[in-house]
Design goal:
The chain is mainly beta. The chain is built from 1 helix and 4 strands. The chain has a 4-stranded antiparallel β-sheet, covered by helices on one side. The longest helix is centred in the middle third of the chain and has 7 residues. The protein starts with a strand and ends with a strand.
Length: 70
């Protein structure tokens, strides 16, 4: 699982999320978020939004690697 910072480009709200490897369930989406994450990012009324995704840590469920460590 990866750790990423997701920023809503419409309102600049951001949140650190762990990607669990399931979804997205709709082909045109980059990722699906939980209801709570969508609420905190401010797009629950819209259903979707444009976001910026920044990788913080890469992982394979056994080992996490900080992006800056290369």
């Amino acid at each position: 699982s990866e750790l990423v910072r997701v920023t809503n480009l419409e309102n600049e709200k951001s949140l650190t999320l762990r990607i669990n490897g399931r979804g997205p369930y709709v082909q045109v989406r980059m990722l699906d978020s939980s209801y709570g994450a969508a609420l905190k990012l401010g797009f629950i009324g819209n259903g979707t939004t444009k976001v910026k995704v920044e990788v913080i840590e890469l992982g394979d469920d056994n080992y996490m690697k900080n992006k800056e460590e290369g």
